[in-house]
Structures
1.
Amino acid sequence: MKKIEQLFSDKKVRYGGYSSIVIAVVIAILIVINLVVDQIPLKWDLTANQMYSISDQTYKVLDNLDQEVKIIALYEAGRENTVIDEILDRYTSYSDKVKLEYVDPVRNPGFVKQFDEDGQGLGQGSLIVTSEGKTKVINNYDLYNYSYQDYTPQIESLAVEQRVTSGIMYVTSDKNPTIYVLQGHGELGVPYDVRTQLENENYDVEDLNLVTQDAVPEDADILLISSPGRDLSEEEEAKIRDYLENSGRAVFLMDITNDEVPNFESILKSYGVGLQKGLIIEKDKGHYVSNPLYLVPNLESHDIVSPISSNDMYVLTPAVQPIEELDVKRRSLEIEPLLTTSEEAWLKTDFEDQTLEKGSDDISGTFNIAVAITDKPVDYEAEPTKLVVVGNSAFIDGQFATQIPGNMNFLLNSFNWLRDEEESISIRPKSLMLQRLNMTSQQSFIASIVVVLVIPAIVLIMGIIVWSRRRHL
């Protein structure tokens, strides 16, 4: 017994025992805290681009749900995608009207087949959004946005929220909005990638020839006029005017043409704008890419472009003619700039001159590249007429639409604004590109000194101090 008492009377043993007890208590506290926190349904998304979060626009859609929506995720057991699952959990945890169900497509081929309308099969990871008999199938490859290098697709960003929220809006809506695309005047039409994106956003896209139609169809939500090469006939002009005067909504994408288009211009002048004949040359290097014809315009303050600016995106518009606001126009018209040039831009009016030098007849100043027009009716019970007019159509063509996110967002936001669907504007895809830390040689040298010398030196000094104190106990 004396030996045991002497052992515990030793200072080293006492301090060692105290240290062991403290360590055990701290470990026990950490275990308890971990168990308690694990039961709290709060989560924080600390990723740089908010990979696992959903946007305010989605929350608004979920807040307005008045019917139950089921999301069916097709995964083989044990092969779930944790990133996608985490995003889907945000929907179900926020709204009790959204239910999530997992189905193994290998074990339940009959169940999956009823949703496979084209018979091509639904891949692993596809999603099915359904509500009250209406269904939207989201194939697994549609959950990502791709870029192409040497014709090889590479996953660039995550589009889960875009597709799922769009699917929820589709299955809970009474009717899909319809865009009619004017044909018969050498129009460029809608590029394949843009048409696909519009269909993903629940738009029905139909061609319209007013020579064979008595009027713009009654189910038209938006009339799209994209780069006409020839003018309207007087009969066609009358049909478009009649549509617009009855609370119509339209997008005019007007390129520079060799032929005069007075009937198109007459319609635009009725809504307070005109086409300035000329090609914009940008002198400010911060407002163009590669050459002064490829403009990167200012994004003004408007529901269409503000989300693009706040998400650090830009719009690229090649070979643009300006949209001029007329001095004489109706008081009911409200014309708001969307895209503008810098003050250093100028307008080349002599098309025979192939140089980019400014001529004596060229005009300097800030120009409107795109405007939004609202014609407020005298009868405030009626819906206003709304137009978006852009002095260019190439910004949605080919690589510009697929590789410049701001371009596609601008078009989609314009359509949603025309339909008074601001809550649908700009749900940004989540980039999957690795963010690299770029350091100068000096920063790299300082970091190396800190990691290799300073930190080990601090640890060594602290160890010597502790060893010295314990040695003299």
Note: The chain is about 35% helix and 20% strand.
2.
Amino acid sequence: PPLSKKYLLGEMTLERMYLRPKSYYDDRKISLELGQTVDQIDRENKVIILGEKIIPYDDLVLATGSRPRRLSETIGGNLEKVFTIRDLADADAMAPEFIEERCVLIIGGGYIGLEAAAVAATRGLKVTLVEMSDRILSRVAAPQTSDYFRNLHKTHGVTIKEGIGLTKLNGDGDMVCSAELSDGSKLEIDFVIVGVGIVPATELAKASGLEITDGIKVDSLGQTSDPAIWAAGDCCAFPYKNAELRLESVPNAIDQAEVVAQNILGAQIDYVPKPWFWSDQYDVKLQIAGLNSGFSDVVIRKMPDQKAASFWYYADQKLIAVDAMNDPRAFMVAKRLLEAGKTVPREAISNPQINLKTLLST
């Protein structure tokens, strides 16, 4: 997450972004093979093949993550200066483009696109964001959250075009120079950032004959269709409430990996996710607890600070998720309520005079 926020703003150094220093692996006798591609998993002989190198395994964990969706070549996705944000190389490639007064087009009004827009606007660029759906965040949030962030971005000079798609990117030679939109308008641009979702990296697992659904299929323990192979993070789909779920978040990747590690050692623990997410845009920190899929209505809680608010999602009478903007107390209380399976009355939520912490004891 810092790649699309503090790193691009120059507020975080490369060294601070590593999960662990090199010494961590050395001290624990972990062999770290960087810059290597696994060519094949030989399940019969229980080895992985990296070029000329063969590494045996008793248990194998696939934590291959996801990769960003890219624009097709037919609409100019292969032009230079058309970027996605997923890894360090992506961030380093686009960083030199963030020059004041340059024009950037952002495709996609999800969290990645909005975070990129916030960084660009903060750096003084002229930002246009287009979203094909009728509103930004339409796939992940209620209209109230969409309205909040639309207004936030507009106050920072970002032009947001909703219900409008990209028709074509044009190039000056191999370099992107303009964009044609579905409303017939044309924009002169210096570069493009594409944030239109991700797809799980399942190619290696599929080539190995493992079962694939919306990701690498695992059971509640994290085992794939091969008992010796496990998977964790947003590359895999796991059972959840009589359905199947694939979560694209850092907390899920960490928590699921820890459960898989324990199960490799024989713990036999079912993975039960406690979903939470976050997004930083300008001076607003959005914290999300729960999953809002299937909500029937939203209760609004506004605080005296106009930038602090929270939107509480209900499915009929049950609390299922919360979006909290600059309101960490609402987020922490909601998270604890959701993890305990508790529901609180709507009128208590909407009344800013009620201390949310008192709801934990009801």
Note: The CA atoms of residues 1 and 87 lie 9 Å apart.
